[in-house]
Amino acid sequence: MTVFDPKPNPISAGLAGSAAPCDLGGCGAERVERGQPVPDALLAQAQAHPGQVRIVRRGQAMTMDLRPERLTIVVDDDGRVIAARCG
Question: Which end of the chain is less crowded, N or C, counting CB atoms within 10 A of the terminal residue's CB?
Answer without folding.
Answer: N
